[in-house]
Amino acid sequence: MAQFSRADSVMVEMEVEVGEGEKGSQMVQSFFKSVEDPEEMLKLIKEMRRMEEFALVYTIGWESFGRINVIEEDRQNRENRLNIVRNTIKTLEAKKDSSPVHLKNLKLELTLAGLLPNHCKLSAQRLQEIKLNVAKEILSTSFDQKNKKIKDFPTSSTEKEDEAIQTNLNSCLDEVTVPSHLLQIVDQLKTTGSHELMRKVLYKTQDRINELRKKLNNELRYKYERETLRGEREALLKIKKELNPNQQSRLEEITKKISSGIIDVETQDNGVDPRNHNKYDDLTIETGKRLMKTVTDEIDVLLDHKKQALARKQAELANQLSSQSNRLIDFVLKSSLEFIVDERDTEAPNVTNPFHLLELAKIVLKYQPEFSIALGTKIRARIEELQVERDEADEMDVELTNLSNERSKLLEQWKNLSNEKQERYFQLKAENKISEHLSSYHFESKTKMDQLGADASEVTLDAICDLKDSQEQESELQKLLQDISNPVQLLRLAEHARDTGVREIALQVGDRCQAMIFRMEDLARARRPPTLELRALRLEESNLSKKFIKLSEEKLNRIKELEVNIAALPKWPHFGQLENPGQYEQTALDIMNVMTNAILDTRAELDEKVAYMYKNQSPETIDKKKIKQDYEVLNQKMQAMVQVCLKKFNHPDYLLKFAENMKARKETDVVFKVGERCLDCIRHIQKLRDERYPLEKEFTSLSTEKTELNKLKRELEPEKLQRLHKLELDIAALTPFPHFAQVDNFTQFEQTKLSAISVMLDSALNSSDEIKKKSERQAFQDPSSIDETSIKEQTEKVNGQLSLVVDMIKKDVFDPRHILSLIQKLDGRNQPNVVIELVTIGKNRVDECEKVAKEYETVKVSSQLLENEREELRQRKRDLEPEVLEKLEALQLELSVKRKPNTTADERDELLSRLSKHLLSAVTAVPTTLAQHVVSDNIKYSLNLLNNPLNVISFIETLRTKGLFDEAVMAGEKGQELLSRLRKSEEQRTIKSKQLQTLVHEKEGAERKRKTLDAKKMEELRSLQVSVGLDQVLLPQFIKNSNYEEQTVELVKGMMSTALDSVESFEKQIVSETNNLKPKEIDQKRSALNKRCSDTLSQGLKHLYDMESIMALITTLVAKKQWTYVIQAGLFAEEKVDSFRAQLRHADSLKTQLKDAEEEILINSLKENKSAAEKQKMIDRAAALKNEVQTLPDLSTSYEILDSFVIELANTIITAARAENDLDLVRDQNVLAFKVDAKQERWDEIRALTEDQSEWEKIKNELVEYVMKRETGTSNKEKIELLLKDELYDQAIEIFPSPTGDTEEINLLVRFWLEIEKNKPQKLELLIPVVSKYIKRYFHSFQFEEIDPLLDQVQRQYPGLIVPLYSAATDILLLNILPSQYNVLVGAIKNLKKRLIAMDGKDVWEQFLAEFKIKHKTKKRLIQMMNLVGESCWDLKALLAKPAPKAGAGKKRSNDNGESNTPKKHASIPAFQLDHSLLFPPLPAGESAEEMELEEPGTPPAPAFE
């Protein structure tokens, strides 16, 4: 928190006592004695100004200035003293024997200095700021005092106050010395409108800046002189020498001045010091701008008042104001400008920065163009001065480097430079250091300085255009042009002139630019050869010096001669690039464009003017002769410019750019002239390249060989050396090759050539479009105004230009891709004839590319194969035969000179496809001027261009969408032929690959035996390898990786869509209002179209090989609901299925025969009674069969797949037949489907559709066979149910399934029994074996209850069979039964007893029981249990009293079928118990337990029976 200062106290007292005269004065004096802080004094000044105590403000202000000066002086002295104290303390502390008292006193002095009041520690910067604020308060007070008097006494004079303001301002300027602070004072004065005072302060500011700049220069010079001398002294101490007396005295003088504080050198490089040249430059220009603005503001005010006076028609006042503004411009503005930019006495101008001069030139341009012109001249002169300074600085750097190197070498020898050289060395080194602190504009790049010169020239040109006197204007323009010699600047100036609308000046500047370009080229031609030769000699001298070898005397003399010759040449401008021969080619093109555009702009302006005259004036008042002369002048200028262009340029790229510019301006004639010149230049360059390239290639090869031999210290052979010399002479004698062209780049200008032709084509097409638009516009506005003759002439001219373009393409364009790009420009331009010609040319170019590729790849593949073969042989330390080796060398030589292909097979195919599309689009465009036969012929031609089936399919689609159905069908037929050829080619390639593989295996086998193939086979192998290799390289991807079947499907789909669309289109035509056909003609046409649809489908189906493809086609037809054709295709597909089925059967037969033959060979090989001839005959037969099997086609199908196709086809055809109401076909297809899918629904439908019973019987008997044969897809149950419906019992019994234990099968068997019993009981006997099988199976698995329903039916019809059936079943069961299961069996036999008793068959039962006991007497426990069953009266409770064995007791046994004998169903255990003794009596005497059948452990409990 700030404390209440002494100044605050004084101000409080003075508010009370001020104005009381003497007492107030005493308070001021008291304040001066008690307050020493300048900031508190400033605070008091502000308070006094607020209280309008003006006298006190001045008094305190002047006193504060003095107080600040005292503080500043004390601060500076104190800082000097403290620096000395610090250095002394540092020195004393380094010495061990220093006086402690003295050191203590010095430290005390530092401590006391830190205890001084804060105002004594204020920085110099802060003190200056306080001074500025005090000065501002004083000046503000002066103006307040003046304003107060004007307010209090309006009529009184203010001269006294004005003098006081001047006096106070002068006093303040004496105190405020910082330039930026002075500018703040200017800002303060600006609010008062005191322009004179502002200018005064600005003059003072500039003077102060100049003083500081001088001071900085002196400080820098002293600093770097001291550094240089100190460095020299240290260097001399190393060789025990000293500075010479002059140097020593100079060093002492500088050191003394720096030590005394006269010179300050420590604040220059601390990064924050504002005293640097850039800062001063910025302050200078800011001062100058403000000075100019003080004048321009006054002028602007006067000019505004003048406008107002003229608006009020006060002419006299306006003249007075104009005179005043002119006086300000002529005197004040001029003097201010002179102060800023002119030299004064011996001093340099205030503003020397050319960038700042340009800013001033832009400011004064509005007020006085002459001043701006003068500043522009000064800027260009300043740029030249800077360039001279830079050149001198470069020379000084070289001199300094040389002296420095010489000095270093002498110091190594303990010597030094001479006094004269020493002085020069010190001077250069100091100047070099000082130059580093120059303003940044001294180091700007040449590019930026050139840009500045161009900007200045533009401002100057604007000023010249503002001059009112035309003669003066012309004179100044010529002066400006003479000042500028840089073509780039002249180009910018010309562009600026054209942009500002002064086209005549643009042409003059353009002429000057062209003249300067020619001058630069002449200078370069004279200077470049000797300069390059001199550089080469110096480089050679430098390289030799590194090896301590001197250049020959002859070459040294040549260097001197070249130096003299170069020095005698005119000075080379700094902006020129001697190493760049084409430096100004782009500039020449740009200036040409500027000048031609200026002429064309003038003509366009004249066109508008003439059109306006004809529209708004009567024809009699129009000076047609004058108009004609004006046009002739412009045309002559234009022709002259074009001729200059054609003569000047030989670079195709620049000619192309000029042609493009002319195309944008719709100058078609000029475009063609320049375009032809461009192509001529390219042809000429190509001719020179053809002459030069072989020589240079051979020369380079020999030179390289010579260099390599020299490295090995060997020499080239004399013949080759002589040839090398001759080649050098021959090359030198050739026509010089353009610097911009590349000898070894044969395609360098191909793109340029294409672009040139493209520009001409675009220009001609635009002209054609313009003619058509103009004709249509005239026909719409005023048909009578159409000039048919003129339009015809113009059209013929354009057609001639298009023909010329076509001839150029035919002659100069060899890349089909380029031709295609040109054809693309014709899209939608209605030029079918041109497209036809270009497509023909493009096709020829593609054929040429294919021929080149084939020739090149044939040589390459052949060479590569022989190289690989040779490499393999070398690994076995062998080599090719001499004649083959000779062939390889010939191939390699041929390959080195062969022209490489520039397109791949895929690219060529794509090119043909796109050519076809463009041709088709052009000839089928609507409207067209082509005859119908021409259209048809070209459609066929465009189709013949296509090799890819996919492109043909797309072609058909395009024709179909255009409604060209006949042509589309024709294209489809061509597509089918193409696919057939491709399939055959693929087959041939497959055969070729197999042959190659066979030969390769044979070769590998021979190599394993260390043998070789015979010459004939080896030649065949190489031929096949080349052929296969060429296929890999030359065939496009659509051939190598195509699915022809899929493409055929798409093709047939497209053909069918076309044929159907043609029918639909015809039907629409019939019902349209424009139909003129008779009914008979309609029927004939409809019949023909329908026949074409049928034929198309038939032909298409013949080309399909896979069932999937045919099904896909049928699916498409179904989607279109074309049922007639669905049936046609379906029936064909069914025939195809039959064909596949026959092939499968044939293949199976062959494989079976082969297997039998191989087995027979194996068996007979062990027999000795077979002769060798017989064995060989068998082997031959097997080999023939194997070969036949291997050659079988890969059907990739099976009987199951074919069956699925049959079902799908039948369903599809049935749907179509129902739509066509063909029930017979529906029945036939159901019969066909039933043969592979015997389902009840189909059977029922067939029977429903067959009304004739005899026919049904025939069909039924035919189908039964397929039901019986059917093994998959339909269960036996379904088959049986199907057979039962039509009482086919024999067949049902034949296929009745074996028992599995399923309850449903018992139900089925029972139902089957009942059906036969009901309808044909005599056939029940045929079912008895099936019944017996089931009874045995179910007894064996203890499923007695499940079999009861079946036994019931047997018992009812055949009671005598019950006992045999039971007996057979139990016999089988007892083979594997366990004792624990006896009770279950006993229960089943009890059931038999019941059945027999029910039929009064007690005797039969007893007989069965007796036989049973005899047959199974070894099973004693079972016999015991059977005895119980045999009693007439038996106790079930006693029988069941024996407890059931535990679960898991006894071992599980299996029957013969591997099934468990454990009963599947257990009876419930009754609640009562039987006596064990009844069921299990004691063992007979003499029998052991081992002799009895006991229950085995783990046997599951047997269920109790009821």
Describe the model.
This protein is mainly α and 1506 residues long. Helix 9 runs antiparallel to helix 11, helix 11 (277-311) runs parallel beside helix 13 and helix 23 runs antiparallel to helix 24 (668-711).
Throw out a few tags for this protein.
disordered C terminus, 1506 residues, mainly alpha, 56 helices
Concise description?
The protein contains 56 helices and no strands. It is mainly α and 1506 residues long.
* Tally of DSSP β-strands: 0
Strand content: under 5%
Number of helices: 56
Gyration radius from CA atoms, angstroms: 61 Å
Largest sheet: none
Distance between the termini: 121 Å
Structural class: mainly alpha
Which percent range fits the helix content? over 70%
- Overall 3D form: elongated
Low-pLDDT ranges: 1-21, 267-275, 1431-1506
Quick check: average pLDDT?
82
SSE map:
Layout lengths: L5 H12 L4 H13 L3 H13 L3 H41 L5 H15 L9 H29 L6 H17 L3 H12 L4 H44 L6 H15 L17 H35 L3 H27 L12 H11 L4 H44 L6 H17 L10 H21 L3 H14 L3 H13 L3 H44 L6 H16 L16 H32 L7 H25 L3 H13 L3 H44 L6 H16 L16 H32 L6 H25 L3 H9 L7 H44 L6 H16 L7 H19 L8 H13 L4 H13 L3 H44 L6 H20 L2 H4 L3 H28 L7 H24 L4 H13 L3 H42 L7 H19 L8 H22 L2 H12 L5 H10 L3 H17 L6 H10 L3 H7 L7 H17 L4 H17 L3 H14 L4 H12 L8 H17 L3 H14 L4 H11 L5 H4 L36 H4 L27
